[in-house]
Amino acid sequence: xxxxxxxxxxxxxxxxxxxxxxxxxxxxxxxxxxxxxxxxxxxxxxxxxxxxxxxxxxxxxxxxxxxxxxxxxxxxxxxxxxxxxxxxxxxxxxxxxxxxxxxxxxxxxxxxxxxxxxxxxxxxxxxxxxxxxxxxxxxxxxxxxxxxxxxxxxxxxxxxxxxxxxxxxxxxxxxxxxxxxxxxxxxxxxxxxxxxxxxxxxxxxxxxxxxxxxxxxxxxxxxxxxxxxxxxxxxxxxxxxxxxxxxxxxxxxxxxxxxxxxxxxxxxxxxxxxxxxxxxxxxxxxxxxxxxxxxxxxxxxxxxxxxxxxxxxxxxxxxxxxxxxxxxxxxxxxxxxxxxxxxxxxx
Length: 347
Ligand SMILES: [Fe+2]
Ligand SMILES: [Fe+2]
Fold this sequence. Notes:
Layout: E1 5-10, H1 20-27, E2 31-35, H2 39-45, E3 53-57, H3 63-75, E4 84-89, H4 96-102, E5 106-110, H5 114-169, H6 177-191, H7 196-205, H8 218-221, H9 229-236, H10 238-246, H11 252-263, H12 284-299, H13 310-319, H14 327-334, H15 337-346
Parallel strand pairs: 1-2, 1-3, 3-4, 4-5
Helix pairs in contact: 2-3, 6-7, 6-12, 6-14, 7-11, 10-11, 11-12, 12-13
Bound molecules: fe (ii) ion (2 copies).
One fe (ii) ion binds at residues 177, 181, 209-210, 293.
């Protein structure tokens, strides 16, 4: 990293004595002194060099150019806190107010006093160095905070996935069910034009839909044949069990997981469970997951069935449009029927 500081000088018109010569004597090789004949040339140079100090020699003739240059610096993201020293004859004291308004940092009277010039420049260079240290520290801290937040989020998402996996573990031959379910749910949410944050939430929460199955006894959950009416009622309790496990979480993902767990077996026509909700009384996240879950179950291999063809499964969704499923969610999913079919062919 280059530590050498750069001073930009834009001298005034003759006969005002320029301060370039004394500056060279004061700083020698420690500072790179760059003198520009016009304010435009100084602006162009900032493409390659960020000055540590800008010195403007002012006269009544060049005040408007100096103000333009100062405005340019103050409006620029990379230059806005560069100190600007306005060197001007004592007689031009009335030029000060507009310069202060635009953001000049300090004034120096001309003709200059060598000691005053030296002290003033050193103070302003020190100010610039300290500002850049503070800025670097702030950037570093911001980076640390950002990576800590990302790490926490990643860990939270991983925990959610593991939790969902645990929920599916004793159940059917689900393979990648929860991953596919998450992707399908996101796809539907996106096609419904839900905000990005909402799409993320649904994608992360969907895999927790069946977490309540961990509360269902083996002899019912794993029973190979048909369930009796009583066993069916017990099986249906996985919705409420899942909700009770997840509902009090501080995580918004888990809280949405609770909603999905409770409502993913509700049906649009009101014939579902556990609460026989209907239409838009069923939370949208659960209406979305219902479509994704049934579609994936139909198109996947299970111990008791071979996978349906995508076309068959999509036809089923269409048939259940407005009965089992929210018509909008079905339509959103059917928008992707071509890519879903080519996906199955590719597998
Ligand atoms: Fe379920
Ligand atoms: Fe499922």
